């Protein structure tokens, strides 16, 4: 699912809020029926936990703490360390040289789906898997599918009932600084801006709120949402056609869907994992709406392996 730190913080038409809430509720019920023993959470980061001093394409956390940006929950995630470590070994054995962290810091990108779907940070065991979705250079999209598949193949050898959960995207272009056009101060932040002062954090959050306000009135300089691109992405995922998405060109993604559209990497990793672990899948819940107030093409797509889906909605 998409995330946005503006959720619940800015005004959106009541029917849109109701529709989004209803779909989150559907997902919640779906997950409750599935009753996962562990959640593998593919999440991006917005220069809160990962910076340019060391920016890996992937990182598996054996322990993690949420930093609490934009009023999101702060505190420890409940990470099954041994499982996370064996997962890291498994994907490395499969040829994906993942980074690991024994003290990962995560932001709203990881926390929002946990709060929405589980009511908090530590109600279920979670293995956080950072997927870089903002800091160029970016590894090819096909590599992300492969990485996800390695995760799925490894976990399929365990007794765990795994929920693969991805957070991010779809098309959106929030005001996250870019190295290429950043001034010295912004570069210092992008390089190693961990644990900002309260004032620095507040300034950053105000900038996002101001941009969202302008954007919803059609007056921001950020790239527009791209519902056509978003729907095509969801359609390929729904059809199990991960090869098409694996062939996306990152530069074109930036151009047509915004600098933060690369967060869809988390979705590709999760569906890659699901497909590798369980074979063909069918969609259970699908939702999409471009919501400018949230600076988000907001989507939800859930799926389960064919034959195991809890009351799947079939087409035709
Ligand atoms: O953390 C930041 O500064 C950017 C936050 C942000 C804003 C709008 C939509 C998003 O999906 C998002 O992540
Ligand atoms: Fe984001």
How do you describe this structure in short?
It is built from 10 helices and 10 strands. It is of the alpha/beta class. Strand 9 and strand 10 form a beta hairpin.
**Sheet of most strands:** 5 strands, mixed
Query: Strands of the largest sheet, in order across it?
Result: 5-2-7-1-8
The whole-angstrom Rg is 18 Å
* Name of the level-1 CATH class: Alpha Beta
Q: What is the arithmetic mean of pLDDT?
A: 96
CATH architect. name: 3-Layer(aba) Sandwich
Amount of helix: 40-55%
Percent strand: 15-25%
Order of helices and strands: HEEEEHEEHEHEHHHHHHEE
The unique ligands bound to this protein are:
3-[2,3-bis(oxidanyl)phenyl]propanoic acid, fe (ii) ion
Spatial shape: globular
Structural class, judged by helices and strands?
alpha/beta
Number of domains: 1
Descriptive account of the structure:
- The protein is of the alpha/beta class.
- The chain has one domain (14-305): Protocatechuate 4,5-dioxygenase, Chain B, CATH 3.40.830.
- 40% of the residues lie in helices and 17% in strands.
- It is built from 10 helices and 10 strands.
- The two termini are 25 Å apart.
- Residues 312-316 have low confidence and may be disordered.
- The chain binds 3-[2,3-bis(oxidanyl)phenyl]propanoic acid and fe (ii) ion.
């Amino acid at each position: 699912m998409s995330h946005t730190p503006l959720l619940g913080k800015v005004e959106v038409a009541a029917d849109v809020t109701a529709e989004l809430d209803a779909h989150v509720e559907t997902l919640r019920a779906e997950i409750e029926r599935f009753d996962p023993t562990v959640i593998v959470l593919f999440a991006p980061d917005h220069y809160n936990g990962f910076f340019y001093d060391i920016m890996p394409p992937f990182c598996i956390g054996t322990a993690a703490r949420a930093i609490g940006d934009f009023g999101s929950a702060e505190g420890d995630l409940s990470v099954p360390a041994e499982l996370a470590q064996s997962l890291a070994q498994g994907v490395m054995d499969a040829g994906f040289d993942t980074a690991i962290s024994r003290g990962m810091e995560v932001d709203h990108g990881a926390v929002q789906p946990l709060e929405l779907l589980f009511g908090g940070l530590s109600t279920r065991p979670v293995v956080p898997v950072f997927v870089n979705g903002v800091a160029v250079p970016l590894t090819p999209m096909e590599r992300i599918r492969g990485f996800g598949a390695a995760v799925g193949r490894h976990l399929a050898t365990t007794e765990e009932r795994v929920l693969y959960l991805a957070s991010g995207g779809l098309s959106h272009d929030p005001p996250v600084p870019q190295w290429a056009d950043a001034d010295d101060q912004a570069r210092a932040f992008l390089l190693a801006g961990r644990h900002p002062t309260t004032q620095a954090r507040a300034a950053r959050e105000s900038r996002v709120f101001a941009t969202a306000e302008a954007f919803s009135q059609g007056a921001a300089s950020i790239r527009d949402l791209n519902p056509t691109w978003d729907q095509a992405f969801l359609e390929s995922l729904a059809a199990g056609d991960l090869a098409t998405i694996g062939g996306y060109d990152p530069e074109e993604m930036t151009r047509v869907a915004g600098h933060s559209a690369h967060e869809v990497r988390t979705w590709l990793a999760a569906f890659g994992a699901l497909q590798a672990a369980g074979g063909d899948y069918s969609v259970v819940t699908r939702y999409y709406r471009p919501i400018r107030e949230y600076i988000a093409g907001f989507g939800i797509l859930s799926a389960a392996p064919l034959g195991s889906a809890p009351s799947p909605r079939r087409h035709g």
